[in-house]
Amino acid sequence: MLRPLIVGNWKMNNTIHQSVELVMKLREFVKTERDTDIIIAPPFTALHHVGFLIADTPIRLAAQNMHHEKTGAFTGDLSGEMLKDVGCEYVILGHSERRKCHCETDETVNRKLKAAIRDELKPIVCVGESLEQREAGDAIRTIKAQVKGSLKGLGPGMVKNMAIAYEPVWAIGTGKTASPTEAEEIHNTIRELLFELFGRNATENIRIIYGGSVTPENIDSLMAQANIDGVLVGGASLKADSFARIISFKESI
Ligand code: PEP
Q: Residues lining ligand 1, judged by CB closer than 6 Å?
């Protein structure tokens, strides 16, 4: 099994004050190094304060998005260098909410992914099918196209720090979770596709994580799947005790 990767995506929640409160509680649960990578992605405004408060813990910082250019006239955007400057080690790219609300395409995600690699951020690339695509029996084809499009032009030497998040759109924030076997089927497909695109050596350590209504109740059955190497958690990462239960999944397997 690969070292698990658990990411809490706070989305557009929490002021600086609320972020500090949440992270102070989280610190109590994650005092010492574990054999799991634990990442939190607060809103941009809280990155600095949160980064300061987790500096002496094993928790690491992610941004929820970035721009692909290094600098320039891009009002409201942030570059990879700026994110590193504020303490981010990871960046989430192509989340379905950005694809939907900000018209991000595989091409956009591809540009950002190349920029993240250039700027030495660890990218977490999100893919996922809609309910219509799943019901039409088109989930696997959709996911393969998204992975190929988002990773286009990369070489085997470029992908080693990347993670892929499979997040079925119909499961995000809806309380509906893909069953462990549904998720496992897609994760296995992504794994095989990565082998095909970049070779086994370059990709066997890439973590493929699941996102979509992950909770303390379903984490153990998801993590018991062979190809689920972690989770991307939205709603349940906003409460310290539920996120703590999720990152402690092993203790109850
Ligand atoms: C997410 O933010 O990527 C997500 C999966 O959200 P939720 O866990 O709330 O479904």
A: 9, 11, 95, 167, 172-173, 211-214, 232-236
